[in-house]
Specification:
155 residues, alpha+beta, 5-stranded mixed beta sheet, two-stranded antiparallel ribbon, 3 helices, globular
C-alpha cells in the first residue's frame, strides 16, 4: 500500500543481490543455481519490492525442489519489457490449481504450501509496476515469469 520508489536499475544487479543473500538457503536445500540473461537489463522499478518478490520465488523453489534439483533465474530485456523468470524442477503446480495460484490466500495442495500470500504478493508487485506475473507452462517443475516496463534509453 506504500507508494512505489521507482528507480532506474539494472535488473541483473537486483537478481545477483538476492541470490547472494539466498545462497546459504539454496545450498542447504542441495540445489544447483544457474543465473542467466542479458548482460544488463535496464528497468524502472522499486528495487526493494522486486527483491522481495524474487525472494518469495526463490523461497518457493527452495521449499519444493528436490535435493539435487536445479534453480534457474533469468533476466532479459525485449520489446520494451524487462522479464524475470524463475524455474525449478520441483513437482510443479497441478493443472487444476494453476488458474488460482496468484489469488490471495489460495493454498495449493502440494505438501509444504503455506499461507497463500507469496505468489499473490509477487503478482501484486508486478501489477503495481504496470506489469504482470505469469505461470509459464513447462514440461517439469514450475516456471514463474515477471514483467516490468523497461527503462527508456536516453542517448
Amino acid at each position: 500500500s506504500q507508494p512505489l520508489d521507482l528507480q532506474d536499475v539494472d535488473l541483473r544487479s537486483v537478481v545477483r543481490e538476492v541470490l547472494e543473500r539466498q545462497a546459504p538457503q539454496i545450498a542447504a536445500a542441495g540445489l544447483t543455481l544457474a543465473e542467466h540473461g542479458d548482460r544488463a537489463v535496464p528497468c524502472r522499478c522499486d528495487p526493494l519490492l522486486v527483491s522481495q518478490a524474487l525472494e518469495n520465488l526463490v523461497d518457493n523453489s527452495v521449499r519444493f525442489a528436490p535435493v539435487g534439483g536445479r534453480l534457474e533465474v533469468t533476466a532479459h530485456l525485449g520489446d520494451g519489457v524487462c522479464r524475470l523468470v524463475v524455474h525449478d524442477d520441483g513437482p510443479g503446480i497441478p493443472v487444476e490449481e494453476r488458474a488460482k495460484v496468484f489469488e490471495p490466500f489460495y493454498r495449493g495442495s502440494t505438501p509444504g504450501s503455506q499461507t497463500g500470500l507469496g505468489l499473490a504478493f509477487v503478482a501484486d508487485v508486478a501489477r503495481r509496476h504496470g506489469g504482470r506475473a505469469t505461470l509459464i507452462p513447462s514440461v517439469e517443475g514450475t516456471t514463474i515469469g515477471l514483467e516490468f516496463p523497461a527503462r527508456r534509453r536516453v542517448d
